[in-house]
Design goal:
- The protein is an alpha/beta fold and 659 residues long.
- The protein has three domains: 296 residues, Ribonuclease Inhibitor (Leucine-rich repeat, LRR (right-handed beta-alpha superhelix)); 97 residues, Phosphorylase Kinase, domain 1 (2-Layer Sandwich); 200 residues, Transferase(Phosphotransferase), domain 1 (Orthogonal Bundle), CATH 1.10.510.10.
- Helix content is 25%, strand content 15%.
- The protein has eleven helices and 29 strands.
- The strands form eight sheets. It has an eleven-stranded parallel beta sheet with strand order 1-2-3-4-5-7-9-10-12-14-16, with no helix packed on it.
- The radius of gyration is 27 Å and the shape is globular.
Length: 659
């Protein structure tokens, strides 16, 4: 069969009149032959066909080629230099392969090039300086590679550039001031690099920019006040940097801003409260030095005082500081001795982890206070139940809404589940994970006190008649989940496998941001392991084949479950639906519909015939379903990882923002 498929390409040289060839989404699983067509070929699309081996040098003989797309395959080796012979080429898309080596200056000979998609490969070396000479460029996607260099200043020459993705590389140096010349730009993602120094004021000139992510860098200095001129901005992420100073009040002018994140920086002063800030939650501002403002942001109120009062406070501070330090040291020493004494007397022999060790916001809560908060675990406050216990809504004495997860200790597995959640959650810090406020534990009672999610679960929003999520909301939620999994799999010192992904474990806060919850059967992989075995099974329908058959779990099991959940979210059909029996499954049902019959499987309320942007939205859903299928490949090695998933879905979100 493979010989037949391979000869198919070889026979194309006989098709003298052939101009357009698209064999995408066919399982060819072959190596491209040295001769892949003829000089008449204008468009060659071989997307997600399981291509192997290297891109042949003979590709450079297709002198009429305008569009080349070999994305989503298993191609290896370097980009052949002969591609520079394709002088008419306008679109080069090689994303999602395993290409290595340098990008090289050869591509700069392609003066008609408008689209360079080389993301999700293993390319290394520098960004070619000559890219700034390709003034016809509209999109540059180089994210998720191993590039290491500065961002060339002459990229500012690209007046027609719409999308720039350099995320997940090792780029260093400063953001060039020339970046402010990219007036047409609508998306810029420079996240997860090592960029340093300040954000240039010139960035405020990007008045068409919709999406800007600079998260996870080493940026310093203040947030430029010029950003208030970026009137089209809808998404701004500056989190996980070393940004300091005030949040400019002028950012209240950004009326289109829907997502704003400056967490994990060194910001001080008052959080703006008008304009888009009225709709933001405390998650946008956590882990900063000294922010103050509205109580809904969970920061202390701001106190205005005269310089005279501040001077007096400083003098008092100088006088009492030595005494205070001495008292603190004595108190700490006493507390240390007392805690050791208490632990020696009351250690729970069944509890392998001290739950207080992961609590950062407050001390342990007493059993009596938890009963008060939940009206003695009244049935009217029950908001959910699972294999190991129940969850109750409550209100603490300070007015904080909580969700109390009470474990059923009649089940031995519940003890292990409590232990596991304590062990895992004490090491995790991420916006898209459910936050643990504190715990309550004694010999007869164990509970985790979680941040209350006022909008319930994704499962409720998908299947309750009184709720509805449009296509953009569903995609945003699934991006949040993808980011959470990307952090668990790639951002922790030891990778964490959730093991039980499903819509009921995706909780939505007041801003409809998604948070991954329930780590009761999760696993942590040690440094010398890539997979491990377990007898604990997750929810049927979401389990990867190797997990269900062999009990083997790895991060790829989460990827599989995520793919099933992604299909479910857009089809509004559970994998356990009675229509699926025998050979038909949710995965097969969706796969059979691609690419031309996707409207037959998606939620009929998602895209209506009256929708002015129905064609564009259908294209986006097709792309989403292709990602889901890639997540659910039978072999774990063949599945894409969550970095790739998150990056691809974010690109689709940008396309949807134009609808």
């Amino acid at each position: 069969m493979s010989d037949t498929r391979s000869s198919f390409f070889s026979s194309l040289s006989n098709c003298r009149e052939l101009q357009f060839l698209d064999v995408s989404l066919n399982p060819l699983n072959v190596v491209l032959p040295v001769s892949v067509g003829n000089v008449s070929l204008v468009k060659l699309m071989v997307v997600e066909c399981g291509l192997k081996g290297e891109i042949p040098k003979g590709i450079g003989n297709l002198s009429s080629l305008i569009d080349l797309d070999l994305s989503g395959n298993g191609l290896v080796g370097s980009i052949p230099t002969t591609i520079s012979n394709l002088r008419l080429l306008q679109s080069l898309k090689l994303s999602g392969n395993k290409l290595s080596g340098f990008i090289g200056d050869n591509l700069c000979k392609l003066q008609n090039l408008g689209y360079i998609h080389l993301d999700q490969n293993q390319l290394s070396g520098s960004l070619p300086n000559c890219f700034g000479n390709l003034t016809s460029l509209r999109e540059i996607f180089l994210g998720t590679n191993k590039l290491h260099s500065n961002i060339p200043a002459n990229l500012g020459n690209l007046k027609n550039l719409l999308n720039l993705d350099l995320s997940s590389n090792n780029l260093t140096g400063s953001l060039p001031r020339e970046i402010g010349s990219l007036k047409a730009m609508i998306q810029m993602d420079l996240s997860m690099n090592k960029l340093s120094n300040g954000i240039p004021e010139e960035i405020g000139s990007l008045q068409n920019l919709i999406h800007l992510s600079l998260r996870d860098n080493k940026l310093q200095g203040s947030i430029p006040s010029s950003m208030s001129s970026m009137s089209a901005l809808e998404y701004l992420d500056l989190s996980h940097n070393n940004v300091s100073g005030l949040i400019p009040k002028s950012l209240e002018k950004l009326l289109n801003l829907k997502y704003f994140n400056v967490s994990f920086n060194n910001l001080v002063g008052e959080i703006p409260s008008s304009g888009p800030f009225k709709n933001l939650s405390s998650q946008s501002f956590i882990s900063n030095e000294a922010l103050c403002g509205s109580s809904r942001f969970r920061v202390p109120p701001c106190h205005s005082g005269t310089s005279k009062h501040r001077s007096k406070r400083k003098k008092v501070l100088v006088l009492i500081l030595p005494v205070g330090i001495a008292l603190v040291l004595v108190s700490i020493a006493f507390a240390f001795v007392w805690i050791k004494y208490i632990r020696g007397k009351s250690t729970d022999p069944q509890l392998g982890v001290d739950p207080s060790s992961f609590v950062s916001t407050r001390g342990r809560i007493s059993y009596y206070e938890l009963l008060q908060a939940t009206d003695s675990l009244n049935e009217s406050n029950l908001i959910g139940s699972g294999s190991f216990g129940s969850v109750y809504k409550g209100i603490l004495r300070d007015g904080t809404f909580i969700a109390a997860k009470v474990f059923n200790l009649q089940l031995q597995a519940a003890f292990r589940s409590f232990d596991t959640e304590c062990e895992v959650l004490r090491n995790l810090r991420h916006r898209d994970l459910t936050k643990v406020i504190t715990s309550c534990s004694n010999l007869d009672f164990k509970a985790l006190v979680l941040e209350y999610m006022s909008n319930g679960s994704l499962d409720k929003w998908l299947y309750s008649h009184n709720y509805f999520l449009d296509i953009k909301h569903r995609l945003s939620i699934m991006i949040d989940v993808a980011c959470a999994l990307e952090y668990l799999h790639h951002g922790c010192s030891l990778p964490v496998i959730h093991c039980d992904l499903k819509p009921s474990n995706i909780l939505l806060d007041e801003d409809m941001l998604a948070h991954l919850s329930d780590f009761g059967i999760s696993k942590m992989i040690s440094e010398d392991e890539s997979a491990l075995y377990t007898k604990t099974l997750a929810t049927l329908g979401y389990i990867a084949p190797e997990y269900g058959l062999e009990g083997m779990v790895s991060t790829k099991c989460d990827v599989y479950s995520y793919g099933i959940m992604l299909m479910e979210t857009f089809t509004r059909t559970k994998p356990s639906n009675e229509m699926f029996d025998g050979d038909l499954s949710l995965k097969q049902w969706v796969s059979n519909s691609l690419p031309h019959a996707v409207m037959e499987v998606i939620d009929p309320n998602l895209i209506t015939p009256q929708d002015n942007h129905s064609v564009k939205k259908i294209d986006c859903v097709v792309s989403i379903m292709k990602i889901a299928i890639n997540c659910c490949v039978e072999s774990p090695k063949g599945r894409i990882d969550m970095k790739d998933v998150a990056a691809r879905l974010k690109t689709i979100k940008i396309q949807l923002l134009e609808c």
